[in-house]
Each structure stands twice: as C-alpha cells, then as structure tokens.
Amino acid sequence: MPNTPLHPLEKILHERIAIIDGAMGTTIRTYGKTEADIRGNRFASSTKDLLNDGDLFSLTQPDMICDIHRRFLEAGADIIETNTFGATSITQSEFFVDDPREYGGRKDPEFYQKIIDDKTLSALAWEINETSARQCRQWADNIASDTGRQRFVAGAIGPLTVSLSNSPDADDAGFRVVTFDQVKTAYAEQIRALIAGGSDILLVETIFDSLNAKAALVAIREVFDADGVTLPIGISAAVGRGGETLISAQTTEAFWNAVAHVNPLFVGLNCSLGPDLMYPFLEELSQKADVAISAYPNAGLPNPLSETGFDLVPADMARFLSSFANAGLINIAGGCCGNTPEHIAAIAQALEGKQPRALARSIERAA
Hints:
By secondary structure, the protein is α/β, with parallel strands linked by helices. It has one domain: TIM Barrel (Alpha-Beta Barrel), CATH 3.20.20.330. It contains 14 helices and ten strands. 52% of the residues are buried. The model is unreliable at 362-367 (pLDDT under 50).
C-alpha cells in the first residue's frame, strides 16, 4: 500500500506545539462597534437586534474582521478560525425570523423545516461562510508570505442554538425542536461554503451537545463523498466541572469514543470554565486519544468588571498553557472566550521551544 506525506499541519504537530487564535467575539468588543455598525446599509431595516450576530460583521465590517485576523497571526497563531461560529441558517434564523413563541406558538421541526427551506437564509449563511473563509485565507497567506511560515485556516463550525439531545419541554421528554436531518442539512451547507472559501481544516468546536456534533461529522463525511474533496478535521468539546459535555453529559472518554471513528487530525477541549478546571479532563483525553490534542480554554471565569469580561490576563494564560505543555498534554494551544491577540502572543512566547505531546503516528502514513 503506498504511503502519502502527512498534511503540512500534521507534520508541524509532530515537531512543535502549534498555536491557534483567540476569541473573535471578545476582540470585536474592543473595537466598540454599535448596532448601526453591524447593520450597515444592507441590514439597516432589520426588525431584530443584530449586534450579537458577530458573524455578520464579516459582511458589514470586513476591515475590522481582517484586522483581527492580522493581529492574531502577528501574535503567533499558526491557525486562525473563520468568523462563522453561528453561520448556519438555523442559528441565523434567531436574528432574522420572528420567534413563534412570542405569539403563542412554539419552535418545532415544522418551524425549522421552513428555516431549512428558506432560500434567503440559505444564501446568507453561504455568503457569511465563504466570505469569512476568504478573509482568513487572504491574511493567512499574506502573513505566511511575509514570515516564511505557513499559516492555516480552520473553518469554524459551532454547536447551534438548538439541541438534538434534550427536550426544552419539561412535560414532554421525547419532544425535540429540530430533527437530525435538518441539523445535518444546515451543517452541510456551511461546510460546502467553508471549503469554497479556502479552508484548510474543518473544526467542529465548542461541542455542548454530542448529537449535534455527530450531525456535523456525518454532514462532513457526506460532503466529502459527494464532492470528492477531503480536508483534515478537528473536534473540540466544551466541558463542565465534572468533565462532561454540557448538554449531552458525555464524559471525556465517552466523547472520544463517539468521535474516534472520524479519524480527526486532532481532538481537544475549548471554552469550558478556564484552564485550571480544564486540566484534569484534558489529561484524561490525552491518555485516551491516539491523535493530536488541542486546548484553547476561556480566560478563566466570566467577570463583568474585567476589561475582557474574563478573569485571566495574558500572563495567566501563558502560565496555565505552559503547565499543559510541561506535562506533555498538548499539540495545539490557544484561547477561547476572553482571549485577545495579547493573550495569544503571551501563550505563543511561553510555548516556544516546548516539546509537543508525543504522537504515535509516523511522519509517513498509509494512504
């Protein structure tokens, strides 16, 4: 059987700890943008508030988004994520479709089928994903050209605003607002647009609900098979104090067992409750998984009195991520909520020269 070289990022993961960027939402807030800024001319007549739809800034404030990508790259990020955490038709519907619950109705599969079939929402989701990926691609390539070091674009696939695992109705445990196929369809649309925009990796991240993630992974596989394309996959879960995914309550080991068949390039933990509380669960995942391990925690717990909204400053994050590296737990490190380019710069500097977690795979892998 012939051997094929590893993906360039996988080769790096054998050699050193790669750096992933920080929090887009946190960094956007430092620019002081307003509701008028996110609306621009295009969405000026929208009837719902849009300021929390941060993905939309890729369309209405592209210079700001590109500046954020540039800053994270200059801080030392090897991997930058697209600004697409909520860029599916399902999540965008929260900002552009009236909530039937306000009129005595409810959100249910019939409601979400209309969302899936809505060509305007579908086109918007595609545009956000493709545009954001192209913005990342441009700046990753610019900085790579300037520095002589390749940079990578991770197409960010978020967890959605609906759950396949849990019922929102305490009196009807079997009720689900959305179906697996509807979620899969929305994800497939996002995946195709991220690929069209030039993503190097597809990153299913901040997984609260493992069944939602499973729908995303099935969608990835079906897109790959139908379109004749393959990209590396990253998978990252968010866990609570007990180490379980927050909605579906899978333990760290169970989570890995549920996604191992995908053969991801890396698996890891992000968001969660900060690096100190993440440590034991990251340690467990590192012991169980036979692929590269990523960790990009929140900058501690939320703190509205803090400049970033979270407790930990750059030096704190650098210290915690150094402890992960010193214990041989990680191949990829960065930050989630509360982490600005300054946090990522501190992490990158602290981890420079530290050895990555040992990987069993050889530099040449059977095709």
